[in-house]
Amino acid sequence: MSSGVETMARPASVAIVVLAILVVTSSAVVAGGAASPVHPPSLSSPPSAPSARAALPIVPSVDRPATAPPVVPVGAGPDSVLVDPANGTVFVASQFGNNVSAIAIATNELIATIPVGSQPAPGGIALDTTNWTVYVSNAGSDNVSVISISELSVVASVPVGVEPNAIVVNPANHDVYVSNGGSGTVSIISPAAAIPRVIDTVPVGPDPDALVLDPTTHDVFVAEAGSDNVSVISGATNTVIRTTTVGTDPGPNGAMLFDPANGRVYVANVGSDNVSVLWGSNGSLNATVAVGSGPTGLAVDGAAKELFVANHFSNNVSVISTVNNTVIATVPVGEAPGMDDAMTYSSATGYVYEANGGSGNVTVLATSPARVAGSIPVGDQPDALAVDPVNATAVYVANQGSASVSVLVLTQVTFRATGLPPATLWSVSVGAPPVVLSDVTVHAKGTIVVLVPSGVLAFSFTPPADYAVSKVTGPLQPTQGSANISGAKVTLAVKFGHLESLTFDELGLPPSSPWGVSLQSALKHGGPAPQSASTTSSSVAFTVVQGAWKFHVTGNPTTYGSTPGHGTVTVGIHAITKTVKFKLVTATVAFRAVGLGRGTPWDVNITGPMNASIHTTAATIKFHLVNGTYTFRVSNFTYLHPHPASGTFVVTAPHPTPLVLVSFTTAGAHGAIGRLPGGSGIRSLSAGPEMVALAAAPLGRLAA
Predict the structure, then answer these.
(1) Contact criterion met (CB below 8 Å) for 384 and 81
(2) Which of 137, 216, 465, 655 could form a disulfide with 124 if both were Cys (CB 3.0 to 4.6 A apart)?
(3) 252 phi and psi angles, rounded to 5 deg
(4) Matching CATH topology for 413-496 and 498-584?
């Protein structure tokens, strides 16, 4: 192969930076057994390749989402991907595994490994949907393998020229065109016979590589790296009808395309850093557009009239207006972009997908205006990709360095903001590591759009000063920090609110008493984060976003209760102060003497959290006690003896507790004991006007 093709081997001088790669270890399945991935020869750096690493912007990525993108092991050195949606299969040709892997779209499972010829060429795979056939050009064995889709096996091997490269199918007659880089010819295979065979060989210039077919005229354009020309083969006569001089080393590994929107052919010239524009009607040169260093990949958005050019050595993408053939934008991307024409456009999503072989990710580019919409980590050295034309959110990426295919099911996430002043800057940080995307509101509304893999997406918002997010709503109950996204498009509504002061004042606590307040959004989902604070002063202050908040008073002394202890407060456009009143939590504990004559003196002494002693001639003694464990002692000044004379009890307001009935009697006398359920011993008394009734009973029946 010529120097133009050799130039596109992997750069040894470019450091490979892997951005949050999902590492997959697998065995490469080949005919006859397993094989380890073989890396192609090193790429010599261009004389003045610019260093773009420092200028690369941070673009959105998701580090190991909860629903990880599936990774399917395939043969060694995959560098061609073909999607057959009609049969639900993805075909991946592996250059060093000498095979084609068939992956089921429905399950992302490897369903067949099909041995083919030696060293399938990068991009050398084509589909004939009518005949249910896949064609694979084998650069190492100088033939084309014909695979039956229904049988998932090779049904024919057609000898062609030396070192076949690109391959295209003419949908009008199903003839197959194969460029032979080593023999300077194009072989034409007809599947009409029982066994496909070469029906014509067309001489062209040296080292032909990329092929494109005009679907209207059925003419075939051939990029010749050895002569810096493009030859046009008539689809009617299979003869060269025009040869046009273009740039140096045109069409590396398939970097040439036909734009059906304007009928022009675009050729990337890797050696002269430009793109040639040809008229599709006659093959003549229309324009030459200078781009970045080492253009190797092309994709076109016909509706937006924009051509995207991946510049392998300058780590960026040039965007050309197809109306006036001028560069209208240059977008920095990852390292070593566009390997093996690793670039495609999906009309269903409106995005361009470009694989960066040196940084292990796929950059997603939006059009009109051109900008980075996302960057998705994949495997090692991604160099070929394809979009499912039916399930347009699925992108299949061949990772040559890790012998695998990453299946990216992408979701367009729209953050739609309301509640901010007009012309206000706000931003969202997306993914991990975090990536910041900004927007300026128009009429108090704003929109930020990002394309990410389906799964759990982490994000956070940076509002303008004095504002915060009051709620986030969307599918599957998102929070203000993450959402589980799926499908082609998801919209998350982000409502902002002004920050206000919310203060809680306390009344009734002793000085320096600890207390606090916890806050939680009153929304079930998507509300702001909880807050809490404690203090020994008389106030607790919060800065909160407008909305409804649930509060709960915490940390107060166990002997005090708060009113209210919890509730909901709605914060509007003004500061709010809420007063919390504290008072002692007490229980009324009554001791009633039974068996004492009227006017007979007696007393009860209480020790515990509160200490008290009452001497009286009344039949009942009442104490108002805070919660806790107490001991008591009963005394009188007559010949009668109380039972019990002492004991313990626990006040656990406001819970009710059992009572014990005892009495006064003469020494040694026995009397009946009346009990409510609960037994005797340590008594737990409620906050109501409960009592301990002293009834006649022998001494020692209640724990002293």
Answers:
(1) yes
(2) 137
(3) -60, 125
(4) yes
CATH of domain 586-696: 2.60.40
CA 111 to chain centre: 28
Evaluate if residue 6 carries a pLDDT over 80. Answer: no
Instruction: Give me the chain's average pLDDT, please.
Output: 83
User: What pTM was estimated for this model as a whole?
Assistant: 0.66
- Sequence-separated contacts (24+) of 284-290 with Cβ below 8 Å: 284/242, 284/244, 285/244, 285/245, 285/246, 286/325, 287/325, 288/246, 288/247, 289/320, 289/325, 289/326, 289/327, 290/327
Residue 663, both tokens:
């009495």
3-state secondary structure of 554: strand
**Domain coordinates of the chain in residue numbers?**
3-49+79-402, 413-496, 498-584, 586-696
Fold category of 3-49+79-402 in CATH: Methylamine Dehydrogenase; Chain H (2.130.10)
Q: Is 679 exposed, middle or buried (0-12, 13-18, 19+ CB in 10 A)?
A: exposed
The pLDDT of residue 638 is: 77
Q: Give 151's pLDDT tier (boundaries 50, 70, 90).
A: very high
- Return the top range by mean pLDDT from 12-21, 507-516, 541-550: 541-550
Percent pLDDT > 70 in the chain is 82
Q: For residues 325 and 287, is the Cβ–Cβ distance under 8 A?
A: yes
Domain 498-584, what fold? Immunoglobulin-like (2.60.40)
User: Per residue in 201-228, pLDDT tens?
Assistant: 999 999 999 999 999 999 999 999 999 9
